[in-house]
Amino acid sequence: MSQTKVDIRKFGATKDGYEVKLYTLSSNHVEVGIISYGAAISFLNVPDKDGCKDDIVTGFDTLEDYCDKRTYFGCIVGRVANRIAKGKYTIDGKSYALPINNGPNTLHGGLEGFDKKIWEAETSGESVIFSLTSPDGDEGHPGEMSVSVSYTLQENILSIKYHATTTKHTPINLTNHSFFNLGGHKTWDTDLSNHEISIPADSYLPADNDCLVTGEVRPVDGTVFDLRNPVTLTEDLLSKTGVGFDHNFCLQRNNKRNLHAKVKHMPSGRILIVESTQPGCQLYTGNFLSGISGKHGASYTKHSAFCLESQNWPDAINNSFFQPGSFPDSVLLPNKEYSHSTWWTFDTA
Length: 349
What we know:
Helices cover about 5% and strands about 40% of the residues. It is built from two helices and 29 strands. The strands form eight sheets. It has a nine-stranded antiparallel β-sheet with strand order 11-12-13-14-29-23-22-17-20, with no helix packed on it. Strands 1-2-3-4-5 form a five-stranded antiparallel β-sheet, with no helix packed on it.
């Protein structure tokens, strides 16, 4: 096994003078860059079937763009990924109100979630470990939360491990929000019709017009959400969901390493395999990308990139049916540790 190399350099500075660094992990197969702003993956170079590497995630060339635009490209989102209905929930008989930033709901941590924070970072072997302290009352949530996220590159596998503790009962749902286009930036695909995807989920969570889960769990049988066998992400398929996929697929609840998704880019032969200990995977097909100017001169337009967000079921804090017994761990307790892992394997065919 080859040794992963780690490089550190300055990426930029915020308007108030805080330095942001770029940490690059390189193996013989993969090169990934993560910035300390949002602990965000800023580039991810992987080979195609001919061995030619290209950057397969959206992002920006400058820190200014990351700071000024709210795209969630590559970042860690929290405290609570996805939507919280009307920005409200109740814990231990006390009601909490959060900032509203997505229609009538709170999305991805609120106005200044973890994606807008500068994380502390340290390197260890093949890993970069980012850490953050979220103070009591941050974006309306109770308790001081200590969070760490480690990125580890071993050959062609990038793993992301999440840990957190808290001083009070508080909701939590952490994930990485990378947007992928496996064709790469050299010939940026303007849609996803060259991508074939499968997700081994027997059920999914329906969502309303604001993309908030309705509280139902439905079987995928006989629906456009049946992705158990590979399907191509054509515009015709996406239109059958409404504006495109932005739905949670329900996977195994055993806290073990389970397959979440497999995606193949047919022209390049690039393959992405997603595995996780999390119980859900949110497939988002870039429905609200609006011609954002990105890296290498690319324009990130509607349906030109997708996300596979391994996470807890959305809005579980407001849906008791989503959390039977101790699952999912939508509320973190002071005497407990939040711990989940996700693995991305890059292959070719």
